[in-house]
Amino acid sequence: MTRVQRSATDRALAILTAAFADDPLRRWLVPGSGERIFQPLAAASEAAGELAFADDDAVAVWLPVPAGPPPAKVTAEPVAIPERVRVFMELTPARRPYGRAHLYLGAP
């Protein structure tokens, strides 16, 4: 039998959805499995070469942040998302350090 190899993003997605399945904040922010919020984060981390696994049951989704000022606020809605998620996404970047390059541990 041939075993199908999953991408690192798919592997991370499986770990994250299982780990946060019962998390009250994640369920309130993003009802359902959470895949739609975890997938872009895991894919961006993998593309940057920063997706890190510990055995088969843990993943760290590191996202590189360049030195410099915070990114400009996006004026157009990229996708239809619940208002509470949009507000969360607007408030959290203000709490991140800017001015020096660093890795951000992306987690909803």
Description:
The structure is a single chain. The chain has 108 residues and is an alpha+beta fold. It has one domain (8-105). It has 4 helices and 3 strands, in the order αααββαβ. The protein has helices spanning 8-19, 24-29, 35-47, 83-91, and strands spanning 51-54, 58-65, 102-105. The protein has a 3-stranded antiparallel sheet. Helix 1 packs antiparallel against helix 3. It is globular.
Strand residues, percent: 5-15%
| Count of all domains | 1
Strand order of the largest sheet: 1-2-3
What radius of gyration results from the CA coordinates? 15 Å
Q: What is the general shape?
A: globular
Low-confidence stretches: none
* Terminal-residue CA separation: 37 Å
What is the strand tally?
3
- Mean pLDDT value: 82
Instruction: Report the helical percentage.
Output: 25-40%
Question: Sheet with the most strands?
Answer: 3 strands, antiparallel
**Helix/strand/pairing category:** alpha+beta
One letter per element, helices H and strands E, the order comes to: HHHEEHE
What's the tally of helices? 4
Short description:
With 108 residues, the protein is an alpha+beta fold. The chain contains four helices and three strands. The longest helix has 13 residues, at 35-47.
Describe this protein with a few key phrases.
4 helices; globular; 108 residues; alpha+beta; single chain; three-stranded antiparallel sheet
Q: What is the element layout, followed by pairings?
A:
Blueprint: H1 8-19, H2 24-29, H3 35-47, E1 51-54, E2 58-65, H4 83-91, E3 102-105
Helix pairs in contact: 1-3
